[in-house]
Amino acid sequence: MYNKITAHIEDHREELERLWKEQLTSDTDARIIDIMPEHIFESTSSEFFDIILLNLKDKDREYKEKLQSFSDKVVRLGWPVALVVKGLREFVHTVQENLVQYGSIDKEREGDYLELLDKWMTPISNEIIQTYAETWEKTVSLQKMALQELSAPLIPVMEQISVMPLVGTIDTERARLVMENLLDGVVSHRSEVVLIDITGVPVVDTMVAHHIIQAAEAVHLVGAKCMLVGIRPEIAQTIVNLGIDLDKFITTSTMKKGVELALEMTGRKIVELEG
Amino acid sequence: MEIQSCVSILNEWDIVAARQLGRNVAKELGFGTVDQARITTAISELARNIYLYAGEGQLCIDRLNENGKAGLRIIALDKGPGIPDIRKVMEDGFSTSGGLGAGLPGVRRLMDDFNIDSNPGEGTDIRATKWLR
């Protein structure tokens, strides 16, 4: 039974490949095919076919390596996972139909053949889906790391003055980092005044405000003052609407004004050189 | 005429997705930057409430057009524990989670219309609308 199918596929390889591709392009959601350049679809789908054939012929190491490199390639080329799964399913259909058409198998044993074909396909689809999932997981964890790296640095800009620019969405995890870096930095840089810049924070809701207030209170406890700078006009209005009390804060609209004020608070100012 | 788009709130990052959706719709409808900020902030509050108190739920954005007036409606739905005393949660400074307690009363002030419907054990349905002026 096994050999019968392989022999048949090898004999009718070109015809099968043509039928399979036709089936795949005619039936698939046009959108999926559209996003792939045609020559890439052509070449990879031939390779796809090769891999499936190789799996049918032998199950040795060579096949395993090839499958792995193939699924890597498929993922890199951006074959949608739906198309890959469909490709495998269509292959079973095409081969089975072709077998019946040529009379290579008896009608009553069709079910057995179908089952056998299915069994062959399972490891391939498992491997490919596994690779997809691994790639996604890797991307997500890399991005998480990248996000953490730009999380919340405290920059000592001048003696006794430090700045923490916040950019992007603040979630619980980042809020925790803000607090830690702020306190560690204030102590190690011996800052008197810390400026928290929220120019790059898209939305200041009650949670973000709550975290900033808590951070400021903690900074106060270690003996420094906290200033909130970079409050955009629309953010100012939403803060008022929300009814958040920032009275305890010194706030300014821009970082420039904030730095000037901080210098004043530490008894200094910027002067222009004469001459 | 209503066109609705929804975001399922399951984790903290879905709040950002909901906000993004709201901001895009608000922009399309022609809201100014201040109203865009109000709408996104309101969405942020409601979506966070779902995440914090109900665990999961849905946040939908409706585009409204009534008597030639365009508007945007935020619908926050969950099947969470519900709110036992609605009057209490609408008070400024009341919070069961140690927060600022400005969320719901704040949303009411940020938006034009506000309606809250909740039964303990059944869930919560909050609708807030902003009209384009």
UniProtKB/TrEMBL annotation, chain A:
Pfam families recorded: Rsbr_N, STAS
Keyword Phosphoprotein attached: yes
Keywords assigned: Phosphoprotein
Residues of the STAS domain: 151-266
Superkingdom field: Bacteria
Gene3D superfamilies documented for this protein: Globins (1.10.490.10), STAS domain (3.30.750.24)
InterPro entries documented for this protein: Bact_StressResp_Reg, Globin/Proto, RsbRA_N, STAS_dom, STAS_dom_sf
Gene Ontology MF terms: heme binding; oxygen binding
Presence of keyword Phosphoprotein: yes
Listed PROSITE patterns: STAS
Name used for this protein in its record: STAS domain-containing protein
UniProtKB/TrEMBL annotation, chain B:
Keywords annotated in UniProt: Kinase, Serine/threonine-protein kinase, Transferase
UniProt signal peptide: none
Molecular function per GO: protein serine/threonine kinase activity
UniProt domain Histidine kinase/HSP90-like ATPase: residue ranges: 34-133
A Pfam family it matches: HATPase_c
Domain of life: Bacteria
Matching InterPro entries: HATPase_C_sf (IPR036890), HATPase_dom (IPR003594)
Record's protein name: Serine/threonine protein kinase
Taxonomic placement: Bacteria, Bacillati, Bacillota, Bacilli, Bacillales
